[in-house]
Known about the structure:
By secondary structure, this protein is α/β, with parallel strands linked by helices. It folds into 2 domains: 4-48 and 302-394, Alpha-Beta Complex (Aspartate Aminotransferase, domain 1), CATH 3.90.1150.10; 65-296, 3-Layer(aba) Sandwich (Aspartate Aminotransferase, domain 2). The protein is 43% helix and 14% strand. The protein has 14 helices and 12 strands. It has helices spanning 4-11, 15-30, 49-61, 64-67, 77-91, 105-117, 133-140, 158-164, 187-204, 266-279, 287-296, 304-320, 342-351, 376-394; strands spanning 36-37, 100-103, 123-127, 144-148, 169-175, 209-214, 237-242, 255-259, 332-336, 354-355, 357-358, 367-371. The strands form 3 sheets. Strands 2-8-7-6-5-3-4 form a 7-stranded mixed β-sheet, with helices on both faces. α3 crosses α11 (287-296). The longest helix has 19 residues, at 376-394. The N and C termini lie far apart (50 Å). The site of pyridoxal-5'-phosphate has 13 residues, from α6. Pyridoxal-5'-phosphate (PLP) binds at residues 41, 105-107, 131, 175, 179, 213, 215, 242, 244, 250, 255.
Amino acid sequence: MLNEKNVQLGKVRSSIRELFEYGKKRKAEIGEENVFDFSLGNPSVPAPPEVGAALKDIVENTDPVLLHGYTSAQGDFSVRKTLADYINSRFGLSLTADCLYMTCGAAASVSIVLNAILNDGEEVITFAPYFPEYKVFTENAGGKLTALKSGKGFLPDLDLLAKSLNPKVRAVLINSPNNPSGVVYPPDIISRLAAVLDEHFNKTGNRVFLISDEPYRELVYDNNTEVPFIMNYYAHSMVCYSYSKSLSLPGERIGYIAVNNAMENYGDVYAGICGAGRALGYVCAPSLFQQLVKRVYNKTSDISVYKRNRDRLLNALESYGYEVVKPDGAFYMFVKSLEPDAKAFAERAKEYELLIVAGDDFGAGGYARISYCVSPEMIERSLPAFKALADSYKTER
Ligand code: PLP
C-alpha cells in the first residue's frame, strides 16, 4: 500500500505547471516567439551583479570543506545574526540569531511553520485569492485550510475574518504582495487584522498566529507603497521570507523563517520550528547560498523591467476593455474573466496563443492570472492577441 494522497498529488500537476508544459509543446510546434507564455512566476531579470561576484569570492576564498559542509540544523549562526541585525535595522525590532531558521525558500518556510504549530484537525485561515500550495502544505501538516472571500480590491474582509474565527483556528496566513493579485495589504488592514486576532484572544483565550509569506516583499513599484512588517503589529507572528524573487534565485532554494521574540511562548515556538524542520528533513539549508545571502542580504534584482511591464500591460488591457485591479507589487496581474467561467476564458485565450491561468485554483473563479515577469518584447508582441481575445467577446462567435 502506498500513501494514496501523495500518489495523487504526484500524479496531478497544478494547473500552472500543466499550462507551462502545454506552452513548451506549443513553442516547439509554432516557434517560441509566437507563444505568449504568462503561466509561471519565474523571474526574467538576472540576479544582481553582486551575486555573481560574491559567489566567485566565496568559492575562491573559503575552505571548501567548511563551505560545502553541514551548517547547524537551523543555519549558520553568523548568517542568522547578520540577517536578524538587518531586519532589526530595517523595522526597528530586537530579533536575535535564534529567531531565524534558514530554509530552502518560502515553500519550505511555510511548510515548516505549519508543521510546527498545527495539531490534527486544526484550521488555518487565508484570504482568496491565495497561493494554491497553501492547501497542500496545510493538509500535509494535518490541518484544514479555509480560504475566505476577499473584500474590495482583493483586500482581506476583516468582518468575515472575525466571524470565521473559532477555537480550532491556529493561524491566519497572509501573502502580500500577493500572488496572484499583485495587491499589497496596506498598514491599516494589517493593524485591523491584528486587532481582530487580539480581540478573539481576549474573548476566547484562543491565541491565533499570524504568518506572513513574503517572497515578494522587495517587489513593489511605487515609492509610496509600504509593505507593513507584521511583527510591528502583532506579537504572535512569523515571517516566511525567500530570496527566490528578490535576487532572482528560485532554483537555488534559499530563504528563512523569522519568529517574533515578542510572543509569550517564543522559545517553544522556535523549538517547534526546529523540530518540524528536523521531522521534515529540512535541516541545513544550502551552505553556499547561506554564505551568499550573508553578503548580499540588502540587494535586489533590477525590478524596473517588471514595473515597465506592469504599466504597459495594465494600460493596454484597460484600453481593450479588461477589468484589472492595479497590482502594486509582485509580478502578477489578476484580470476579470470575460465570461463567468474563467477556465473557459483561459481555454479561449489559448486560441490566441495566450497562456494565462484560470483563477479557480487560487480560490477565485471569475479571474485569470497573468504572470508578467517576462521580456518587454513578449509583452509588446502579445498585445494584439489580448485585443483579439477581448474583441472575440464583443462579436458573436
Ligand atoms: N509563496 C508564494 C506566494 C509564491 O508565489 C511562491 C512561489 O512562487 C512561494 C511561496 C514559493 O517560493 P520559494 O521559491 O521561495 O519556495
